[in-house]
Amino acid sequence: MDKLLTLEEVIEAFDNIVKDNVDFIYPQQEDQDPRCKCVEQYDEEDEGIERYDYSDCPWHMNDDNTCLYLKDGTSTAPACVVGHYFLELGFSDLYNFEAKAPTFILDAHGYEVEPRAQRFLNAIQSSQDQGYSWGESFEQALIDAKGPQ
């Protein structure tokens, strides 16, 4: 039987994760953040399209700024805010689910996710991936999930 994750449970768990790192901003490829090891490549023969070599970066899995749940995609060290949550739930196989949606991963582990909790998870992940702090991402996810008060 699937365990139902409610919005309240998800908010409580993320509140505990975020309060320890409220100002943390996930490294962005274009920000020249020294934590990001992606190397910008500019190829004039390919119409000048910018690309990133992400092979040595523990934070990204491709050149479109896709964030990882686990640092370097194989370790047990969480990278993103949702990666922290999944490890708290006891998921030890996250490396198999990089780039998958949070609800896909939860479903694969026997969880049913209430629709408002799905909106929260998607919103906090998206905001973090766009370069907002975990605190800002948490607040935006609350608004997205609950609606304006």
Molecular structure report:
This protein has 149 residues and is α+β, with helices and mostly antiparallel strands. It has a domain of 86 residues. It is 38% helix and 11% strand. It is built from 5 helices and 4 strands, in the order E-H-E-E-H-H-E-H-H. The strands form 2 sheets. A two-stranded parallel ribbon has the order 1-4. A two-stranded antiparallel ribbon has the order 2-3. Strand 2 and strand 3 form a beta hairpin. Helix 1 runs parallel beside helix 4 and helix 1 runs antiparallel to helix 5. The radius of gyration is 16 Å and the shape is globular.
Keywords:
149 residues, alpha+beta, two-stranded parallel ribbon, two-stranded antiparallel sheet, 5 helices
